[in-house]
């Protein structure tokens, strides 16, 4: 076990009075502690907010007060020191625990060399299954194999990417991508009152079905598609399938053990099941939960099996798909690969009550499907009938709204006094956009404070880049740089 303790610094990771990050399930031979001064230099203040840790003053801690080497359960993040985990000589700063189940822990993390956001999944299961995989001389943990297979090229964004991994005597560790603005589908539903609209459900279900189908085509049975193992971007509604710990390599013969959340009825009845049919059942259960805010009861399952289940708030195509996925007989169940071709996805994006052909300034356009909608109206894919040119049609209602924008881009002067000028507001929006391009996230309150003080820096980015951002994101619009002066900044010259 390699542990070193360093003196505390004015700002640090972790505060026992707020949320002590337990690392009880970390493989101890990869754990170190580093001083807050090392991790929270001028280039990395943003790390604190992202990892879910507090920043406060503290005194130095001795190594004996940090950890009890004899007990894994006593391994804690102490005020004044930061937990660092090493995977193949790459160091990661570890933050808030995201999940814990069956000797498996998932932590927020940041790769220290470049600030990449990651999720560190540490498995200390005693009964880890190992399996051979092409390109490796020795057998690897089965979950590593499944994720490797699922991420074969061409990669799809709906499956979480495995960035790195290592096996230890105590278990194994995986470094996974951690997208910005994401939460579990369970958390997303809770935030939205327990369920979502049929249209939003269709967007999500189609992605889940595509991810599950891709896994099966690449020889991977996920084994536990549920609301916790799907993460969703709450802005774009893009999903990623995670949690392959209960998965298996597909095979023609039936499986005789099941450790997932939604046990298929054939397993309950016969003790056997096939991966493709069980996957379709799980997708159907997730779809039902998203639409209805609960899992189906016995009466629901009877009606679904007889294909007579319906709901006043859902379209006929939606109910038909649910019935097809939740048939008790696996041979009558719709194969998950066919889900994306279902009529539900075609019918929902075209409003039957709307005009099929509309005229704009004497030109006729055929409306194909609805692309999206928001505060500024609805956008449709269409074709101009005169020459077949593909266009987008935007329909906006007359309104007296004085200001409308994406929340993160609203200038502070409008929040404070309800007024703003166009040019300074545009400069602020450009600053927010640049910040997101640089860091992969929107600025926190700490970031905004340091930007306003002209003291914000970020890892290895140049001084000119950081100064440019500070000049764009000044709270006082009169101190913000002029819109016309942006392109002439020294940063652009230094990068050429």
TrEMBL record:
Q: Which InterPro entries does the entry mention?
A: Kinase-like_dom_sf, PIM_Ser/Thr_kinase, Prot_kinase_dom, Protein_kinase_ATP_BS
Q: Which SMART domains match?
A: S_TKc
Mention any one GO cellular component term assigned to this protein in its UniProt record.
cytoplasm
> Its Gene Ontology molecular function terms?
ATP binding; protein serine/threonine kinase activity
Q: Which UniProt keywords apply?
A: ATP-binding, Kinase, Nucleotide-binding, Serine/threonine-protein kinase, Transferase
Say which domain of life the source belongs to: Eukaryota
Query: Which EC number applies?
Result: 2.7.11.1
Share an example GO biological-process annotation for this protein.
regulation of mitotic cell cycle
What reaction does this catalyse? L-threonyl-[protein] + ATP = O-phospho-L-threonyl-[protein] + ADP + H(+); L-seryl-[protein] + ATP = O-phospho-L-seryl-[protein] + ADP + H(+)
Residues annotated as coiled-coil are none
For the Protein kinase domain, which residue ranges apply?
92-345
Chain positions recorded as ATP binding sites: 394
Q: What class of enzyme is it?
A: transferase
Pfam families according to UniProt:
Pkinase
**Family designation:** Belongs to the protein kinase superfamily. CAMK Ser/Thr protein kinase family. PIM subfamily.
Q: What name does the UniProt record give this protein?
A: non-specific serine/threonine protein kinase
